[in-house]
Design a protein that fits this description.
alpha/beta, single chain, globular, nine-stranded mixed β-sheet, 262 residues, 43% helix
């Protein structure tokens, strides 16, 4: 009963925050105002508080621009976690646009939607990402291309780093900075979260969204550690596969250390 009461109260708070922030965000999107980059962070902070997601940050966001963040991906909660820390935009597969609730939220955050199956559109999509990077926006890429079970990093797709290569000619100093970031769900109710309980946090995609969302809301206390790693610079002389392997190694090391409690 207490859990359901907490869910109802949290939903009311989240709806109220949405009602207040939505008109401002719509105006920001309509006129491309800088405030459109800041409003989502406020909303994500409220959402994390409502769901009981406690975010601990290790390291710092890279200050150099253009900046592409490459992070592991375990759940839809990754969006809120990173969004509560920094003013970011995401790269997402096109079908997310049509998802209930999450599709609307993605559009409100000016998400960059990509159609991976249509190669003829690849150039336009990469150009859009490059433009957003050179405009100073922090773009988040989940290079695994899908969600994992939260216990490991899947092999990353090197092709997804093509956006960094496309932005290089437009970067002020001919360099795009890529910052590896690991997102590790490490605790529940103040206790260490082992492999058995990690499905509470992870969402591999074969689980219905609503039951999973309600399960997280009922728990009400999930700890997540976000590690910001040392940046990797991408220039004209860089090799995409080598850069992606370096980024992958850094994410894997940070994630593994955090999940082992180090």
């Amino acid at each position: 009963m207490i859990a359901w009461l907490r869910i109802v109260v949290g939903l009311v708070v989240l709806v109220a925050a949405t009602v207040v922030l939505l008109p401002v965000q719509l105006v920001g999107l309509r006129f491309n105002l800088k405030i459109r980059r800041r409003i989502p962070r406020l909303w994500h902070r409220v959402a994390c508080r409502v769901l009981g997601i406690r975010v601990r940050v290790h390291g710092a966001l890279e200050q150099q621009r253009p900046l592409l963040i490459a992070a592991n991906h375990a759940s839809w909660k990754d969006i809120m976690v990173l969004g509560s820390i920094a003013d970011v935009v995401y790269i997402a597969k096109a079908e997310v646009r049509g998802w209930p609730v999450f599709g609307i939220l993605a559009r409100l955050q000016a998400t960059i939607f990509v159609v991976r199956e249509q190669r003829q559109k690849t150039g336009d999509q990469v150009d859009e990402i490059a433009r957003r990077l050179t405009d100073g926006e922090i773009v988040v890429l989940f290079p695994e291309g899908t969600t994992s079970d939260g216990n490991r990093l899947l092999e990353i797709k090197t092709s997804l780093f093509g956006a960094a290569a496309s932005a290089v000619p437009h970067a002020p100093h001919g360099v795009v900075h890529i910052q590896p970031v690991s997102i590790a769900y490490t605790g529940v109710h103040g206790m260490a979260m082992g492999r058995y309980h990690r499905p509470i946090a992870a969402w591999p995609g074969d689980i219905e969204l609503l039951p999973h969302l309600l399960g997280v809301a009922r728990e009400g206390a999930v700890d997540v550690d976000v590690d910001f790693g040392e940046r990797v610079d991408y220039s004209r002389a860089s090799n995409r596969k080598q850069v992606s392997r370096e980024v992958e190694a850094r994410i894997r090391a940070m994630l593994g250390a955090r999940l082992r409690g180090r």
